[in-house]
């Protein structure tokens, strides 16, 4: 939504009145978007309109629970707790912060707000109304429907030709899925026509993905589960949307630039003590090869060399190799080699002055590779 993007930009630029207007426009086009209400609540909070901010936060909470999306619930409840604090409803704020803690105890600013509320509660007397919890976990209000659902019968009668044809839901056994990736994200498409927007449930975990929704008219439920994913994701930055033809899920890679070979992996995820992952540590943690690779012995005057690092630096060079067919052959050979073979090639080629090229790390890894010049020539040291 263009209005929502403008609202975010205005919020970042501290143009709060402008942000409020843009988020209001965005809500008019999609009155069920949780993040639009959170965005407008944030803008209202910055201009100290706490009652308006609380109203938007509570709508966001109701919508988030309707969508059953954990991250949205946490964000909406956290924003709600802040408004309760500013309205001096300290016991209510403390109660909602406990909900936030249960949802995500690692929320960065949660300790700060918990301390602020605790301090205020210490300053007021035992019988003060501000010490009483009056708030409900989920507000008693009807969550707004999408703008498309607000069309009146009068509007329909006035323009019958413009009425859209009903979408025939895809049978459960005919639903297909596909996926593709970019440097930062993995996109999964569930190709299902007529998936009910308010009943699609998508659960993100750092190692798994789960999708489910009822198939209307068939009395069945569609389920799609991937556990574990090929590599970890960031659930807080992952999202989904439902269109008339598909459910589109965008997964944010925890380690950007990692190429997924499949959607589902065969690694072991965190669980039993001592379990290890089949995916290399540098993929899971985002640490580069240089951070953890061992340094091997060498007779070079410049000291020990990290052949993992040299191999990684060579892979980062994306420029096309210019030259003859031999250069292209070696490029192809190198790109298709394993990391261990690449280390062996780098070490043997450099230490031998370009006269030896070996892919056997067990042979060259623990010794200095001696130059082997062609017959009639001799190696020279520079």
From TrEMBL:
- What Gene Ontology molecular-function terms does this entry list? protein-folding chaperone binding
Full protein name: SGS-domain-containing protein
Domain CS: residue ranges: 172-264
Looking up Pfam families in the UniProt record yields:
CS, SGS
What is the phylogenetic placement of the source species in the record?
Eukaryota, Fungi, Dikarya, Ascomycota, Pezizomycotina
> Where is each SGS domain found?
295-382
Please list the coiled coil stretches.
none
Q: Which family does it belong to?
A: Belongs to the SGT1 family.
Family matches, as PROSITE patterns = CS (PS51203), SGS (PS51048)
- Where in the sequence does UniProt note compositional bias of the Polar residues kind? 349-366
Renumbered to this chain, region (Disordered) spans 133-176, 344-382
């Amino acid at each position: 939504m263009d209005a929502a993007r403008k609202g975010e930009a205005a919020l970042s630029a501290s143009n709060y009145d402008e942000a409020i207007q843009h988020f209001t426009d965005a809500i008019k086009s999609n009155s069920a978007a949780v993040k639009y209400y959170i965005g407008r609540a944030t803008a209202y909070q910055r201009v100290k309109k706490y009652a308006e901010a609380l109203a938007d936060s509570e709508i966001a909470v109701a919508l988030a629970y309707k969508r059953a999306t954990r991250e949205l619930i946490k964000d909406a409840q956290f924003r709600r707790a802040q408004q309760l604090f500013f309205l001096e409803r300290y016991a209510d704020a403390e109660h909602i912060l406990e909900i936030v803690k249960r949802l995500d105890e690692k929320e960065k600013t949660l300790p700060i707000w918990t301390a602020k509320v605790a301090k205020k509660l210490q300053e007021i007397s035992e019988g003060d109304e501000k010490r009483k919890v009056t708030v409900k976990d989920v507000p008693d209000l009807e969550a707004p429907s999408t703008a498309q659902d607000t069309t009146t019968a009068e509007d329909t009668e006035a323009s019958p030709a413009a009425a859209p044809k009903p979408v025939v839901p895809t049978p459960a056994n005919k639903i297909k899925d596909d996926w593709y990736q970019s440097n930062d994200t993995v996109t999964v498409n569930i190709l299902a026509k007529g998936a009910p927007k308010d009943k699609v449930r998508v659960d993100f975990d750092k190692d798994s993905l789960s999708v489910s929704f009822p198939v209307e008219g068939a009395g069945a439920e569609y389920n799609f589960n991937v556990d574990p994913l090929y590599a970890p994701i960031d659930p807080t930055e992952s999202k989904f949307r439902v269109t008339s033809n598909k459910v589109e899920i965008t997964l944010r890679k925890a380690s950007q630039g990692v190429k997924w070979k499949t959607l589902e992996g065969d690694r072991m995820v965190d669980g039993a003590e001592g379990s290890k992952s089949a995916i290399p540590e540098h993929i899971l943690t985002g640490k580069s090869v240089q951070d953890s690779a061992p340094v091997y012995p060498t007779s070079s005057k410049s000291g020990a060399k990290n052949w993992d690092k040299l191999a990684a630096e060579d892979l980062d060079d994306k420029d096309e190799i210019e030259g003859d067919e031999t250069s292209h052959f070696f490029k192809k050979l190198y790109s298709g080699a394993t990391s261990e073979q690449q280390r062996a090639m780098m070490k043997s080629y450099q230490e031998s002055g370009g006269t030896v090229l070996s892919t056997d790390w067990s042979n060259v890894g623990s010794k200095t590779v001696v130059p082997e010049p062609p017959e009639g020539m001799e190696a020279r040291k520079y």
